[in-house]
Amino acid sequence: MGLMKLKKNRKYNYKPRYYKGDGNPYELKHKFDDFRKTINPPKGIKGKWNAAMDEYQNDRDEKVNKRIFVIAGILILLFLFLIGFDLSIFFPQS
Questions:
Q1: Is 74 a member of any domain?
Q2: pLDDT, mean of each 10-residue run, the chain (94 residues)
Q3: Is there a contact between 12 and 5 (Cβ–Cβ < 8 Å)?
């Protein structure tokens, strides 16, 4: 009868005796929760993609944008070299 039933975890309401700060000292919180929207995005790949694109478009840091484009360009070139793509079509013939 009790083979298929899961055990329930016990809950304790422990409060530290000498803690005078605000909030719960044992709460686990990511340090970027206040600044990012993609920590807990909507479920599904479309929701994750839309949340990431929204954060990317609202971020006005130009150095980050340039860095992303440079990294993407290098990765594309490496991929083209690996598959043996002829890059001479991009250069003028002399």
A1: yes
A2: 74 74 72 68 76 75 79 92 80 76
A3: no
Cα separations in angstroms, 17 against 14, 20, 21, 22, 25: 9, 9, 11, 14, 12
Q: Give the phi and the psi of residue 30 in degrees, each rounded to 5.
A: -70, 140
- In the chain, the number of structural domains is 1
Residue 65 included in any domain: yes
Q: Are 42 and 48 in contact (CB under 8 A)?
A: yes
Provide the pLDDT for residue 73: 93
Query: Residue 12 falls within a domain, yes or no?
Result: no
Tell me, yes or no, whether 68 lies in a domain: yes
Q: Three-state SS across 8-55?
A: CCCCCCCCCCCCCCCCCCCCCCCCCCCCCCCCCCCCCHHHHHHHHHHH
State if pTM tops 0.85: no
